[in-house]
Design a protein that fits this description.
Blueprint: E1 2-4, H1 6-14, E2 19-22, E3 26-28, H2 30-38, E4 42-45, H3 59-68, H4 71-89, E5 99-105, E6 108-111, E7 127-129, E8 135-137, H5 146-155, E9 161-165, H6 168-174, H7 186-191, E10 196-198, H8 206-212, E11 221-224, E12 228-233, H9 236-256, H10 267-279, H11 291-294, H12 299-307, H13 325-344
Parallel strand pairs: 1-3, 2-4, 10-11
Antiparallel strand pairs: 5-6, 5-9, 6-7, 7-8, 9-12, 11-12
Helix pairs in contact: 1-2, 5-8, 6-9
The structure holds zinc ion.
């Protein structure tokens, strides 16, 4: 009888196989069984099976190991950990929520582990996967939400990194499946563009990936209904910046709703922002639109129009022109007279 222990299980996992078949002649140790099950490899008992051939690492598996430990991969793993700390520090993720990935080569990606707080990751926790999410290297099981990242990489060649989190303010829009209106803050217009909303689907399911796929090429920030936000960028930090800007934007809107007034970026000035964006080589689904189409809806009316408003939006009233010196003196005198008259009553 042949013993299949942890060392053999590690080698088998690196081969990228998804199923382990063994027969009566192979004894699987409990430690080896754990490694296989953590890697999502199905263990099948098959009396007819021959000894597992994949126990010896293939040439491709060795190449993946080299890539996984290359200086570039090590640099990116550290950067993912740094961004994870920023995500956690800014309270964009609670518990083990959120995940980050980055392209490392054609059909090779580094991805964060499942079941770990994004604030306390170390480079060894990262794994190497292909576009299908097959784990090719790394001891920690990859995030189950990588398949949603893959939907972005498949449809958007410009996407180098994907960042997913559950920030509270954008999350408030998510649980109402409400699209943040445009034309309120230049930062969002230039660096993010319109934020899309995808309807709720089960996290990690093929349905959620399908809901993101058509939106990704034209939107760098997508609110996932009753879930969170997913952003892509040209680097790990860039993807994270989209997340920060989206959440700050949503937070400002929520705060502003408690205040009177309803200003927005004037329509004719939006062209200036889009021109800046074009110059910077950033994508935007509004480049083809005419000015009138860009400003069809008032942002505050749009907020109410989607799901109704708990309190109606007050129309914007410009501040009255300041009083001149002489008028002000008369006014102060009149008020003083009134106060004195009341006191004397
Ligand atoms: Zn999530």
């Amino acid at each position: 009888m042949k013993l299949f222990a942890q060392k053999e299980a590690e080698e088998f996992r690196r081969s990228g196989a998804v199923e382990f078949r063994h027969n009566r002649d192979i004894r699987l140790t409990p430690g080896a069984r754990d490694i296989l099950s953590e890697a999502g490899i199905k263990v099948v008992f098959d009396a007819e099976a021959s000894a597992p051939a994949a126990a010896a690492p293939s040439v491709a598996a060795t190449d993946d190991q080299k890539l996984f430990h290359s200086p570039e991969a090590e640099r990116l793993k550290k950067e993912i950990c740094d961004i994870g700390r920023r995500i956690w520090t800014r309270e964009y993720c609670d518990g083990n929520g959120g995940n980050i990935s980055v392209r490392l080569g054609p059909d090779r990606f580094l991805v964060t582990p499942t079941g770990v707080s994004k604030g306390f990751m170390t480079p060894e926790m990262m794994s190497l996967v292909d576009i299908k999410g097959t784990q090719l290297a790394g001891k920690w099981r990859r995030s189950s939400e990588f398949t949603t990242h893959a939907a972005i990489y498949e449809t958007t060649p410009d996407a180098v990194s994907v960042c997913h989190a559950h920030p509270v303010h954008a999350g408030a829009f998510a649980i109402k499946e409400l699209q943040p209106p445009a034309r309120l803050i230049p930062e969002l217009e230039v660096f993010v563009g319109t934020v899309a909303v995808a309807g709720y689907q089960t996290p990690g399911s093929p349905e959620i990936a399908a809901s993101i796929r058509p939106l990704a090429p034209k939107h760098q920030s997508i609110i996932m209904g009753c879930h969170g936000v997913i952003c892509w960028g040209k680097s790990i930090e860039d993807a994270y910046f989209k997340m920060e800007i989206t959440d700050a934007y949503c937070r400002t809107i929520i705060l502003a709703q408690a205040l009177p007034g309803a200003a927005s970026i004037p329509c004719e000035k939006l062209d200036d922002l889009l021109a800046i964006k074009k110059k910077m080589g950033l994508p935007d689904n509004r480049f083809e639109l005419k000015n009138a189409e860009l400003c069809e809806v008032d942002p505050w009316a749009q907020m109410c129009g989607q799901h109704g408003c708990s309190s109606p939006v007050t129309p914007f009233h410009p501040m009255p022109a300041p009083e001149t010196g002489a008028d002000m003196e008369t006014l102060v005198q009149k008020l003083t007279d009134e106060i004195l008259a009341n006191l004397n009553k």
